[in-house]
Amino acid sequence: MSDTSALAKLRNYQRLFEASIAEADPAAPVLSCGDWTVRDLVEHLAGVYTWAAHRAGGPKARLVPGDDLAAHYAAAAAVIEQTFTELDPDEPCWTLLDDEAPEGRPRLGTRRFWHRRQAMETLVHLWDLRTAAGLGLEISAEDWLDCAEEVVSVMQPRQLRLGRISAPQTQVVLEPVGGSQLVLAGAPADAAVVTVRGSAEQIALLLWGRTDADDLEVTGDRTALAAALVGVVP
Questions:
Q1: CATH of 143-229, one of 3.40.50, 3.90.1570, 3.30.1050, 3.30.420
Q2: What does the domain layout of the chain look like in residue ranges?
Q3: H or E element, residue 83
Q4: One fold for both 3-139 and 143-229?
Q5: Does the pLDDT value for residue 4 go beyond 90?
Q6: For residue 81, which of 28, 142, 11 has the smallest C-alpha distance?
Q7: Which of these, 22, 7, 25, lies nearest to 89 by C-alpha position?
Q8: Span 109-122, pLDDT tens digits
């Protein structure tokens, strides 16, 4: 996904998310996010926006949540929109690729990284919100493929790098329909292989811990698969 496409998708997801707030009870549980309510979810995503905007070189905004959840969310979305449209996307900045980088080392990423990261963050939480409200969500397979690929190329390797998870003891090979094969990092070369096949949406939601593999085609040890997927995203 190019940065231009990522920004367009982010804006689209944000429009859908804001519109969906009005259709959800703020006190409704969001079962895909532990003990969160809809209010917790909206405030979380708003906080992620202002944090990411600052990391990308934007202002350090401090937005206080009020009774109007949609207005609070819209204010946070405006902060990140301004940052992403006004600042050079090719400018290096701190990203999730730069944890524990030596002082003075050139940054590995640019603001383009945050365009995609925030699009994917919004997509996953849009699914959380609409699911909590009993609403469907029609998103293209291409978007879900990108969501799954980001976990495998960025999120899970970072979790390993930071010591938040142990290396998987089985090689997990993901085969989304219509997409390229994805492999979790860190498994021993001689480890047993578990292959998972399903739709792009199913694979992405599996990686994000929003669903299990019960409805997926799995070849290999399901218990080992479940263990390998624990904590692959923070």
A1: 3.30.1050
A2: 3-139, 143-229
A3: helix 69-86
A4: no
A5: no
A6: 11
A7: 7
A8: 899 999 999 999 99
Q: Which two tokens stand for residue 208?
A: 């994000």
What lies within 8 Å, CB to CB, of 105 at 6+ separation is none
- What pLDDT is stored for residue 1 in this prediction? 41
* CATH of the structural domain 3-139, one choice from 1.20.120, 3.30.420, 1.10.10, 2.40.240: 1.20.120
pLDDT digits (tens, 9 = 90+) for 183-197: 999 999 999 999 999
Strands 182-183, 171-176: pairing kind = antiparallel
Mean pLDDT, rounded, of the chain:
94
User: Cβ(164)–Cβ(187) under 8 Å?
Assistant: no
> What's the rounded Cα separation, in Å, for the pair 3 and 83?
14
Residue type, 205: L
| pTM exceeds 0.90 | yes
Place 98 in a pLDDT band, splitting at 50, 70 and 90.
confident
Dihedral, 137, 119, 124, 99 alpha carbons, nearest 10? 170
How many angstroms separate the CA atoms of 209 and 34, rounded?
11
pLDDT band (50, 70, 90) for residue 105: confident
List C-alpha distances in Å: 155 to 23, 27, 94, 120, 229: 31, 30, 15, 11, 12
User: Distance (Å, rounded) from C-alpha 80 to C-alpha 222?
Assistant: 40
Backbone angles phi, psi at 198, to 5 degrees: -175, -175
Cβ-Cβ contacts under 8 Å for 61 (sequence gap 6 or more): 50, 53, 54, 76, 79
